[in-house]
Structures are given as C-alpha cells and as structure tokens.
C-alpha cells in the first residue's frame, strides 16, 4: 500500500511507542542506551547489528525524522544533523579529499557561497562557481579532481529554478553525484531525486520545521549512485580501517552513504541533531503540504500586486508569468515556486532600508520559511560578505529586498506593504 504525501508527512517513520503506546513520537531525551549484553554491544560497535549506542550517532526521535524526510523525498535513507550548513559538509565529507573540488551554482544561499568559497578551503577542498543555465560551462568546469555537482532546486533569493534534469544528465555522463539543496522548495513542491539527484540536502530550519523554532539539517540519499564504479569515492568503496576493513558500499548497498554519514560523519564530526529539535521539526512536517500550498498562494498574490506598484522596478519570482524561469516551474515544481521572492525598488539602496524599517507585520530577520512573513535587505546583511558581483549573481543586489511570504491573511500582508511603500516615496 502506498500512501499519499499528506498521509506520509504525518505517519512515515512513526509508530506507537513500543514501551508505552504513546501515539505521538516521544522525545527520547537520553544520551546512551543499555546494551542487552557484551555480545550485543560488540555487534553494535562492529555495525553488524543496527541499534542505539550513543546519541551523537543515533537517537530514536531523530531516527523517526530521518525516515520521514527520506520517505517524503523518495530516498533510500537520510542522516539528520544540527543545521543546513552542517548537512552540506556532511554530504561532501565522504566524497571529497584534499585537492578535490565541487562544481556549484552561482545562484546559492549567501551563507553557502561563503562556506564553499572560503571555509571548505581549510579542508583542502575547493568550489568552482558556474552559471547553471550555461550547461556547457558546467561540463567545462568538471575536471579529474571534481567529486560532486551542487545546486539548489529553487534558488534563494534570486527567484530561480534549476533545470535539474539537464544538470543531472551532465553529472550522470561525468559519473559524479548531483547534490541538490531542496530547502526553498521542500519535497512538497519538488522531489529532486525524481529529476536525477543523488543526494538532497535541507536546512530543516526553514519550511520543514516551518515555525522558526530550531536549526536542523538533513542529507537524503537516493541510494542509486554506484560509489564503486570509478574509484573516485574510496571512503565508500574501499576498506575502512576504523571498522576492521569494512567496505561501506559493498556491505550496505543503497544505504552505504547513510551508514557512512552516521558511523563516520556524525561519529567524528559530531554535528548531531538533538531530540528536542527533531521533535519540533516532526511537528512542523505534519502540516508541510498545507503550509506550502498557502505560502505559494499568498506569494503569487503578493508578488502580482507588487509587480504593478509604482515604487517597484521588478519582482523576481518564478511563480509569475513574467519570470524567465516560469516555464521550468511546470516541469520541476508544478505545485508552485515557493514563498520567497525578491523585489527591486526604484529608490535603490536607501529605499530598501526605509522599507524594511517601516514594515510592521513583516519581521526583519535573517531567516526564511517561517509561518510569519519575513523581510531582509540581503546586501546589507546575509550577503554582506560578498562582492557586489557575487551579490548581483546571487540575486541580492543593493537595490533588492527579499521577502519570505508567510501564511497570514494575504490582505493583511498587502496592507502592510501598502503603508510602508507609501512612506518611502518612489
Ligand atoms: C538557511 C539555508 C541554508 C543553511 O541552513 P542553516 O540551517 O541556517 O545552517 C542552506 N541553504 C539554504 C537554501 C538555506 O535557505
């Protein structure tokens, strides 16, 4: 029996608690788990038996969340971690080594651009930034040191949709895994694995939790990549000395990446999601489809209204027919282009700052995907560390504000924008 999305977002991974019958998934607030006996402990430590040892690696509340997100994304398995940025490191960690590179889209979340252009260099890794609408440029950027291709499905904040099928065709041909950050779309709007993604990463901080309470991340594995084919991924295909020469791919097949993520990634990098945070995210996911449908409905209405406002030069939202990426929506995310868009104001940088200060219902925060409407002037905040060229490429030029449209009454959101825009002049 296969259930629909609305059913799975409530039930996948969860079953009544075996000890108490508790219907809601308990928060297993424990660090460690009692072994049945010494043989049981040895089997767990050898990865011969699956079970709970210590909450840096696995925790029953977190496990339910892993199974739920993997199911909603159509993946074989998933590993949760402490934030979206942690998920990106956890995804790259088994693939990369000193001297290796990842080919990434220029249209990424600002923090990801910083992580990839600066911080990963400390590991001896590097990123090659390419315009992902230029397929020839992606192919040209791939070299013998490339270990992955990385992009966002719906790119935050530029109102951009990646042609995932076309990018997956390139990664397939090159024998490389395609990693897709699906944070802005969520599996309700886009399922990257169906378009050829190998791994899907999320900042669960955003729409999956949906209420601005916790940070979290997840890496979902499609289970479809042959890690042994090229010799490029020895962490997954070759003997692992920390586990008596066990080969993850040979032993765990489609779950190789997931087991490695827990047994090596979480064990040694320690970027673990705590059970409280997993609980908040599980609560959020129960209403994901309802929220996303409303985010989209409100975003379309408000973006349309803003597009005809005299103070507005342009609205960048793939949900509008005026967007150059609107046609891709039907193929990549047919239920809508999400709740994020950017607005270019005729009044430039100063008008953006004044707008942000005069809005009342909107909160001025560095977050997105909350039930409440949020606004930020990216160039002076999240994208501050970038050069003006990088800002513009990422859809965060100085005369642009980003909106994350909430699920309040659309009339109230429009009224707030109307009063604030009236105060800034044109
Ligand atoms: C927020 C965000 C991240 C980073 O996630 P954190 O949970 O803040 O670490 C990565 N990618 C996208 C698209 C995001 O919106």
From TrEMBL:
Keyword Transferase appears in the UniProt entry: yes
Modified residues (N6-(pyridoxal phosphate)lysine): 206
SUPFAM superfamilies: PLP-dependent transferases
Gene Ontology CC, one term: cytoplasm
Cofactor: pyridoxal 5'-phosphate
Domain of life, per lineage: Bacteria
Transport in keyword set: no
Keywords: Pyridoxal phosphate, Transferase
Pfam families per record: Cys_Met_Meta_PP
Gene Ontology terms describing biological process: cysteine biosynthetic process from serine; L-homocysteine biosynthetic process; transsulfuration
GO molecular function, one term: O-acetylhomoserine aminocarboxypropyltransferase activity
InterPro entries in UniProt: Cys/Met-Metab_PyrdxlP-dep_enz, OAc-hSer/O-AcSer_sulfhydrylase, PyrdxlP-dep_Trfase, PyrdxlP-dep_Trfase_major, PyrdxlP-dep_Trfase_small
Family: Belongs to the trans-sulfuration enzymes family.
This protein's name: O-acetylhomoserine sulfhydrylase
Native source species: Roseovarius azorensis
């Amino acid at each position: 029996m296969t259930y629909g999305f609305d059913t799975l977002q409530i039930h996948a991974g969860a079953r009544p608690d075996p000890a108490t019958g508790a219907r809601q998934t308990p928060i297993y607030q424990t660090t460690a788990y009692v072994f049945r006996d010494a043989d049981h402990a040895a089997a767990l430590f050898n990865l011969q038996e699956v079970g709970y040892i210590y909450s840096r690696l696995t925790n029953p509340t977190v496990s339910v969340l892993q199974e739920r997100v993997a199911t909603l994304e159509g993946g074989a398995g998933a590993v949760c971690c402490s934030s979206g940025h942690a998920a990106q490191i956890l995804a790259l960690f088994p693939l990369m080594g000193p001297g290796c590179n990842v080919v990434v889209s220029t249209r990424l979340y600002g923090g990801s651009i910083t992580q990839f252009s600066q911080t990963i260099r400390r590991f001896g890794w590097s990123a090659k930034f390419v315009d992902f609408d230029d397929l020839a440029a992606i192919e040209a950027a791939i070299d013998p040191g490339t270990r992955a291709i990385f992009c966002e499905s719906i790119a935050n904040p530029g109102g951009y949709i990646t042609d995932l099928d076309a990018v997956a065709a390139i990664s397939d041909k090159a024998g490389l895994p395609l990693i897709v950050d699906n944070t802005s779309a969520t599996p309700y709007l886009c399922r990257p694995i169906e378009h050829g993604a190998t791994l899907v990463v999320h900042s669960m901080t955003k729409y999956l939790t949906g209420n601005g309470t916790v940070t979290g991340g997840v890496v979902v594995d499609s289970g479809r990549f042959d890690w042994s084919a090229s010799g490029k991924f020895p962490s997954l295909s070759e003997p692992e000395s920390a586990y008596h020469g066990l080969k993850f791919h040979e032993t765990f097949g489609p779950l190789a990446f997931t087991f490695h993520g827990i047994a090596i990634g979480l064990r040694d990098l320690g970027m673990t999601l705590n059970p409280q945070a997993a609980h908040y995210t599980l609560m959020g996911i129960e209403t994901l489809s309802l929220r996303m449908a409303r985010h989209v409905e409100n975003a379309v209405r408000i973006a349309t209204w803003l597009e005809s406002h005299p103070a507005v030069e342009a609205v960048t939202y793939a949900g509008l027919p005026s967007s150059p990426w609107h046609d891709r929506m039907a193929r990549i995310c047919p239920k809508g282009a999400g709740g994020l868009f950017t607005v270019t104001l005729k009044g430039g940088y100063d008008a953006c700052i004044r707008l942000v200060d005069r809005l009342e219902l909107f909160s001025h925060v560095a977050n997105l995907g909350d039930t409440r409407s949020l606004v930020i002037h990216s160039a002076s905040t999240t994208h501050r560390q970038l050069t003006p060229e990088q800002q513009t490429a990422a859809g965060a030029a100085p005369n642009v504000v980003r909106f994350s449209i909430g699920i309040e009454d659309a009339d109230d959101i429009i009224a707030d924008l109307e009063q604030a825009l009236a105060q800034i002049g044109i």
